[in-house]
């Protein structure tokens, strides 16, 4: 916002266990004219604390940049996953859209939930 009469608008998103998307709309009016704007806000899931994770904190977090082999165990979104044996283990290192443990469209082709 610009000008001497600018205002600061704040918004606090609720904590969520999963990622969510919110549409935030703001309407301002001077009594005669009004203007509305909207914004899509992507809120990430609340990070798990060690007490939330139980024993899953002892395993590394999954990363799309890491290389995995059969038997590797990773922590993703507070849950444990193990890379499947050959020939499925090759998928553990592929497209996160499809093979991110617990989240990808075909994650169970590469990973086993523990």
Task: Provide a count of the helices.
Answer: 2
Tell me, what's the shape? elongated
Unreliable runs? none
CATH topology of the domain at 50-113: Seminal Fluid Protein  PDC-109 (Domain B)
Helical amount? under 10%
**For this entry, what is the oligomeric state of its chains?**
single chain
Q: Mind telling me the CATH superfamily name of the domain at 50-113?
A: Carbohydrate-binding module superfamily 5/12
Strand content: 25-35%
- Please tally the β strands and state the result: 5
Protein name: Chitinase
Organism: Enterobacter cancerogenus
Any overview of this molecule?
The chain has two helices and five strands. The protein is mainly beta and 114 residues long. The protein has a domain of 64 residues: Seminal Fluid Protein  PDC-109 (Domain B) (Ribbon), CATH 2.10.10. The model has no long low-confidence stretch (mean pLDDT 82). This is Chitinase. It comes from Enterobacter cancerogenus.
How would you summarize what this structure contains?
This protein is mostly beta strands. It has a domain at 50-113: Seminal Fluid Protein  PDC-109 (Domain B).
């Amino acid at each position: 916002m610009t000008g001497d009469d600018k205002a600061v608008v704040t918004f606090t998103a609720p904590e969520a266990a999963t990622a969510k998307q919110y549409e935030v709309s703001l309407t301002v009016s001077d009594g005669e004219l009004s203007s509305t704007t909207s914004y899509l806000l992507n809120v990430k899931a609340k990070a798990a604390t060690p007490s939330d994770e139980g024993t899953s904190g002892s395993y590394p977090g999954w990363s799309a940049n890491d290389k995995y082999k059969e038997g590797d165990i990773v922590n993703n979104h507070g849950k444990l996953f193990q890379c499947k044996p050959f020939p499925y283990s090759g998928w553990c290192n592929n497209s996160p859209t499809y093979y991110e443990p617990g989240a990808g469209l075909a994650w169970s082709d590469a990973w086993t939930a523990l």
